[in-house]
Specification:
4% helix; mainly beta; Immunoglobulin-like
Length: 129
């Protein structure tokens, strides 16, 4: 399954563009590709060439408990310079069907962390068999 999502780096305090939650419903065992496009809060496209972009699946009752994480990759540096990253999510079989939360974080350098996609619902559906 493929989805498209916008990441918003809230760094200017302008608030012209706001982060939006996005619910994902995915059948257990199916891979997920997230095509992520990142802007700042003024709507200006942000280069991701010097950033690490990370998808996190978290426990909805304890959002700091990360159950799964994966970093974005890009097919070319041109893709990253245009604020576009691809997240390939392949959840392990050990994660049961149920309701979780997901979010995306961007790290610049060693210590600057920004949540660019807010906590959103992630429904892992049971298999149809």
């Amino acid at each position: 399954m493929k989805i498209y999502a916008r990441g918003v780096w809230v760094c200017l305090g302008v608030g012209t563009v706001e982060q939006e939650a996005k619910t994902i419903a995915l059948p257990k065992g199916e891979p997920l590709t997230i095509e992520l496009y990142v802007t700042d809060d003024a709507g200006v496209v942000r280069s991701l060439e010097d950033a690490t972009v990370e998808f996190r699946l978290v426990n909805p009752l304890m959002p700091r408990q990360v159950l799964y994480r994966t970093n974005a990759n890009a097919s070319s540096s041109g893709q990253l310079s245009l604020g576009h990253a691809t997240l390939n999510v392949n959840l392990p079989a050990s994660i049961d069907a149920g309701t979780y939360h997901w979010e995306v974080w961007m790290t610049l350098g060693l210590s600057s962390h920004y949540r660019i996609v807010p906590l959103s619902a992630f429904l892992l559906l049971g298999s149809a068999r």
